[in-house]
Write a structure and sequence with these properties.
Blueprint: H1 3-23, H2 29-40, H3 50-71, E1 79-82, E2 85-88, E3 104-107, E4 110-113, E5 124-127, E6 132-143, E7 146-148, E8 152-154, E9 159-166, E10 175-185, E11 190-195, E12 198-201, E13 220-222, E14 235-242, E15 251-260, E16 265-267, E17 273-278
Parallel strand pairs: 8-17
Antiparallel strand pairs: 1-2, 3-4, 5-6, 5-16, 6-7, 6-9, 9-14, 10-11, 10-13, 10-15, 11-12, 15-16, 15-17
Length: about 280
C-alpha cells in the first residue's frame, strides 16, 4: 500500500473518530487547536454541533492531504509509486516456445524426436474412476528368447513377461510407483499382488479404496525414460521372469499401472494382461 493511501485512510478514520469524540467531550478544543496549528498555523473556533465540527475538520484534513498529494511525483505509465518515489514496473520475461515438428514433442523446453506409437483402442489406460487416460499399455511376452504374440504359454517355457507403457506426454519425466496385481483362476482362485518385488497372495477385500494403500512393487520409475535415464518415451513394468512350473491349467488376469506423487493411478484395468498356462 502506498504512503498516499495510508495517509488517506488515516485522515478519513481520524475525521470520523475525532469529530464524534469531540462532540462527546472526549477531546478538548486545545487538542484540535494544536492539530490546526501544525496544519496551517491557525487555531480555529470549533463549533459544538457535530455536523459543523465535521466540516471544520474536513477542511483541516483536506488541506493536509492536498499538501501531501501535491508533493508526490507524477509517475510514467511504466512506473509505480513506492515510498513516494516512482520506480519502474518489472516487466515479465518474454519466453518463446519452440515450434516442434510433427514427429517431435516438447520436453523440458526442447523439441525431441518422438517414437510414434499407435495405440489400439483397447490398450488405452484408465484412471481408477474409469476416465480414459492418454497412456497406452502393451503386453510384452518373450518366450524362449523370442518375442511372441501368443498368450498361451507352457509351464516348461522360459518366459519374460512385462508391460510396456507409453505415458501421457504431460507425464513424461514424472516419478511414479509401479503397481502389479494378478487374479488366478482354475484350479485355484487366488488374488496376488507384487509387493516389494515379490509376489504374494492378497485380498482385494482388504483394500479400503484409497490409492495410497495399494501395495507397490517398489520399482519407482521415471516415466518415459529407461534405466539409464535416457529419454525413450516409454517405460517397462517387469512382471515375471523364468518358468511357470506348477501353474499348468491356470488362467491369469494381470493388472498393471503406476501411481503418481499426487495419488493418481493409471492402469490397464479395462484390458488386463490375460495369460493361459498349459502343460
Amino acid at each position: 500500500m502506498s504512503s498516499l493511501n495510508k495517509k488517506l485512510i488515516f485522515f478519513v478514520s481520524f475525521l470520523s473518530i475525532t469529530s464524534i469524540s469531540y462532540a462527546n467531550g472526549l477531546f478538548s478544543a486545545d487538542f484540535f487547536c494544536t492539530i490546526a496549528q501544525q496544519t496551517n498555523g491557525k487555531c480555529p473556533e470549533l463549533p459544538t454541533d457535530e455536523q459543523s465540527l465535521i466540516n471544520v475538520l474536513s477542511n483541516l484534513l483536506y488541506t493536509e492531504f492536498k499538501t501531501v498529494y501535491d508533493s508526490l511525483p507524477i509517475c510514467a505509465a511504466d512506473e509505480k509509486l513506492e515510498n513516494n518515489v516512482c520506480v519502474k514496473i518489472p516487466q515479465p520475461i518474454q519466453t518463446t516456445t519452440p515450434s516442434c515438428k510433427v514427429d517431435e514433442t516438447l520436453v523440458d523446453g526442447i523439441c525431441r524426436t518422438t517414437r510414434i506409437q499407435l495405440c489400439e483402442e483397447k490398450n488405452w489406460g484408465v484412471y481408477l474412476d474409469g476416465l480414459r487416460s492418454q497412456t497406452c499399455f502393451n503386453n510384452v511376452i518373450i518366450k524362449n528368447g523370442q518375442f511372441s504374440n501368443e498368450n498361451i504359454i507352457s509351464e516348461k517355457a522360459s518366459v519374460e513377461l512385462s508391460i510396456q507403457i507409453f505415458p501421457d506426454i504431460s507425464q513424461i519425466g514424472m516419478e511414479a510407483d509401479t503397481l502389479l496385481f494378478a487374479f488366478r483362476y482354475a484350479p485355484n482362485n487366488e488374488e496376488w499382488v507384487k509387493d516389494r518385488q515379490n509376489w504374494r497372495t492378497w485380498s482385494l477385500k482388504d483394500w479400503r479404496g484409497t490409492s495410497s494403500e495399494l501395495p507397490s512393487d517398489s520399482q519407482r520409475i521415471k516415466l518415459g525414460y529407461n534405466n539409464s535415464n535416457e529419454l525413450t518415451f516409454d517405460s517397462f513394468i517387469p512382471i515375471f521372469s523364468g518358468e511357470l512350473k506348477g501353474f499348468a491349467g491356470s488362467y491369469f488376469l494381470i493388472y498393471a499401472g503406476y501411481r503418481l506423487e499426487d495419488g493418481s493411478v493409471i492402469c490397464n484395468c479395462k484390458n488386463p494382461f490375460v495369460l493361459h498356462v498349459v502343460n
